[in-house]
Give the backbone structure.
Amino acid sequence: MSGDGVPALSEAIAQGVLPLGLELNNLLAILAAALLVFVSGGVIYLSTVEWRDRRRRQQPVAAAPRRRR
């Protein structure tokens, strides 16, 4: 411990307590939840883009009107 009664940063980290008062397990749980949300959002986005593209490809192609000269 430091002379003022506050543990040094390296001692706190060695005990598993981070500077914000979070324990290492809590930080890892928050990080895992954030990654889960990020990856799930990416999967939903890519699925939506693929669905839109597939729907657009299945629509009949309308002939473009020709210009008169």
About this structure: The radius of gyration is 28 Å.
